[in-house]
Amino acid sequence: MAMFCTDIDGTLLNPDRTLSLRTIDAVRAIRAAGHAFVLCSSRMPESMRILERLYDGADEPLIAYNGGLVLSRSGAVVHDVAIAPEHARRIAEYCSDVDLHASFFAGEDWHVWGNDPWTAREIKNTGVSPHSMPSKEYISSGRVDVHPPHKVMCMGEQSLVDEIEALLSTEPGVVTYRSKDTYLEIANAACSKGLGVVAAAAELGYDKGDCYFFGDNYNDIPAFAAVGTSIAVANGKQAVLDAATVTTARHHHDGVAAYLETWLAAAGA
């Protein structure tokens, strides 16, 4: 049996930012044959479950927040690497000073800066609604100490995002990832997709050689090192293509599905 893990955005989704019928059928076939199919993303758990429901896969582990939070099949936490509360406070203070949107993601909860266009865009992109407690109250109430964030997403004008990225570059304990010119993702420096994959594999009882990972971007490379076979979609960054064991078609051409179909046919031969 094998465990297939995949990144979501840029790897698994079609141009409509969902799963194609071909991908749904391929994943269902893999699972019907007894193999595991695990999502691994910077997204929060509920945003990933929306995709899982398309192929009836809600009984699989989840690797959320780029490996910062791994949930078992039952929903129990098996790996947890959150941002320290003091770092979260400093980020919130800076964003408040320059009026930069900061969303704080803590476990199942998403705290937003306010009802602004950035919040509306993320609701549309993810299909998830934010927690009723806004970011500033999440910090000021002390909830951040009890439920520290696994990810902070700063969104705004490029110049402001440039500034906070430069500021945090010297901050020990956190790592930043620029997903867009106007988006900056912040996580604990000890967080990685590779460690998330290792935790999920251990939870399910898979050896490294029986694990596969699909990716397209730089933060997928640590996961490549944690599996026996790494697969880059053709639209991936050059460094990702170079690091992969094999390549498959582009995400918009159902690259993940194409690989799964070929693999399953060969396994059954």
Characterization of the model:
The chain is of the alpha/beta class and 269 residues long. 37% of the residues lie in helices and 22% in strands. It has 11 helices and 13 strands. It has helices at residues 21-32, 45-52, 85-98, 117-126, 135-140, 143-146, 158-168, 193-204, 221-224, 238-243, 255-267; strands at 3-6, 36-40, 62-64, 69-71, 77-80, 101-106, 109-111, 151-155, 174-180, 183-188, 211-215, 229-233, 246-248. It has an 8-stranded mixed β-sheet with strand order 5-4-3-2-1-11-12-13, sandwiched between helices. A 5-stranded antiparallel β-sheet has the order 7-6-8-10-9, covered by helices on one side. Strand 6 (101-106) and strand 7 (109-111) form a beta hairpin. The mean pLDDT is 97.
Shape: globular
Total DSSP helices: 11
Structural class: alpha/beta
**Strands ordered across the widest β-sheet:** 5-4-3-2-1-11-12-13
Order of helices and strands: EHEHEEEHEEHHHEHEEHEHEHEH
**Radius of gyration, in angstroms, nearest whole number:** 18 Å
Head-to-tail CA distance between termini: 15 Å
Helical fraction = 25-40%
Structure summary, number of beta strands: 13
Largest sheet: 8 strands, mixed
Q: In terms of per-residue confidence, which ranges show pLDDT below 50 for 5 or more consecutive residues? A: none
Mean pLDDT: 97
Strand content: 15-25%
